[in-house]
Amino acid sequence: MTEIKSLGLSPELHAYLVARGAPPDPVLDSLARETQALGPISIMQVAPEQGAFLTMVAQLMGARRAVEIGTFTGYSALCLARGLPEDGKLLCCDTSEEWTAVARRHWEKAGVAHKIELKIAPAIETLRALPRTANLDLAFIDADKTSYIDYYEELLGRLRPGGLILVDNVLWSGNVVNPAANDANTAAIRRFNDHVAADRRVESVMLPISDGLTFARKK
Asked: What's residue 135's pLDDT?
């Protein structure tokens, strides 16, 4: 049996990790505080270390064309946009004018709004309206779990060879291995994880970043 080297994070250890990585700047701090004020729904915001990781991934890939499914208040989009060059473009898909209004204000403050196109519509409709050409470099899925496979399939066909799809919440607070958890979202995450694991069109790895992050690289 492989030795388990993953480490659970206490609040103190998490704070240490963030402070010694790429700690959030004033704009990200302001965005996080405003999101927190929304109440329990704020759990949908990505963790600060995950945001910094998204920026670095985009930079390392040299990504120029990216798509985000599920924008919420815009933290992950801001981080992705910062990883794109000045002429890079990020298409953000969401259905909430209220939440994305918070996003728009902070994108302007951060100086990345010119890189971002926001579509307020069901994401699957936005994706299906895109040209069926393999020109996307990077995609991030963090939206309704029951549609994950649909989003993945629409994106994969539009992803260039070597392009990357990142998918959030794939460990689902550990419920993917909890036999007592049989709700629709948990079942959908399990189906998605199995779908990617069996997909020979990609090379994939699942990492225990935040609530679990899958990398799927198109061959």
From this structure: 96
Query: Is 151 within the bounds of a domain?
Result: yes
Interhelix angle 48-61/11-19, rounded to 10 degrees, is 40
CATH of the domain at 84: 3.40.50.150
Strand partners, 136: 159
pTM of the model: 0.94
Residue 28 token pair: 């990200």
Q: The tokens of 196 are what?
A: 């990617």
Task: Classify strands 213-218 and 202-207 as parallel, antiparallel or unpaired.
Answer: antiparallel
In b/e form, how buried is each residue of 43-72, taking b as 16+ CB within 10 angstroms? ebbbbbbbbbbbbebbeebebbbbbbbbbb
Mean pLDDT of 103-112: 98
Q: Is residue 6, in this structure, part of any structural domain at all? A: no
Domain of residue 157 covers 11-39+46-218
Provide DSSP, 135-171. Answer: -EEEEEE-S-GGGHHHHHHHHHTTEEEEEEEEEE-SS
